[in-house]
Amino acid sequence: METAFEPVKRGKWKKRVLRLLALGAAALLLWCLTIYVIVVRFDGIPGEGKPTPSDVGIVLGARLWNDEASPGLKERLDLALELYEEGAFARIIVTGGLDAGGATITEAEGMRNYLTAKGVPESAVLMDTLSRSTYENLLFAKDIMESNGWNSAIVITHSYHGSRAADIARKVGISPLQVSVTDSEVLNVPYHQAREVLAYTKWLGTKLFL
């Protein structure tokens, strides 16, 4: 038989649970806003002016369309071309393995094809054709750097992706490090910024175990 105190107890527990849920939701919202600000405020390393000359440029991969660089990937490659022509580096590492969407060449091969069609000598383009994530992009690029005796690098990507890329590059040991970023005129930037909050959170968790 239910006593008079049991409804009171249930009411107290319900309030506690609701309070904890509200605190959890507030903490999650604060976390997401903090990461979002980090993502959208990143404007490169260094943040102002042109990067200083480095041993190599590293272009982070993205999807191909029909075995050719997608419009978003072309934006990264065009920034790499601009820096290459300005003398920021004499060699370019392009990164990315085979897409799951039916591509017959790797992202790196598609990126190399785009650069060489723009006049970059094939001998100046080195490829990582195995990586499947930003972490692997930079880890495998670091391996290529070490095998060639290179130390410094300029990492090239989009603005929304730059902060996480910089943190990963530091983790894999690229130093001195510079990051050059480009804004996008072809991508759905708000979508990618929101997605980056989740990707950055996942990376911070993964980093704890590396």
TrEMBL record:
TM ranges: 20-39
Source organism, top-level taxon: Bacteria
Keywords recorded for this protein, A-Z: Membrane, Transmembrane, Transmembrane helix
InterPro entries: Cell_Envelope_Assoc (IPR051599), DUF218 (IPR003848), Rossmann-like_a/b/a_fold (IPR014729)
Coiled-coil intervals: none
Claim: Transmembrane helix is one of the keywords in the record: yes
This protein's name: Uncharacterized SAM-binding protein YcdF (DUF218 family)
Entry GO terms, CC: plasma membrane
Gene3D superfamilies named in the record: HUPs
Domain DUF218, first and last residues per copy: 55-190
